[in-house]
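REVIEWER CHECKLIST
Item 1: Sequence provided? yes
Item 2: Single chain? yes
Item 3: Sequence as submitted:
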Amino acid sequence: MTLTPEMQAHRDRLDAWRSKSHAEQLAYFGAFRPEDQRAALARVAACPDRGGVLPISQQPEGCARCGELSECRRGLGAVAGRVSLRECLACCQGG
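Item 4: Structure as written out by the authors:
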């Protein structure tokens, strides 16, 4: 299989990341702080605008089994009203 230039560039970036030591990867993202993660997830769980996980038919192609997207009653998300946990975390980050 011949890789497109974009695919090869992506593969090269993955290889570069994987070649880093665990310490180098942690330094890139900062220290892992479980208490921060728990607090952020608690803010998401307490959000009055967050609904349930959307049905499989409303999940993105190729991700139908993971149940990634949830309802957003504020209408946020790449598709209005459908948000990932990452989008919820970004929205709730300010408190």
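Item 5: Key structural point noted by reviewer: The radius of gyration is 17 Å.
Item 6: Recommendation: ____
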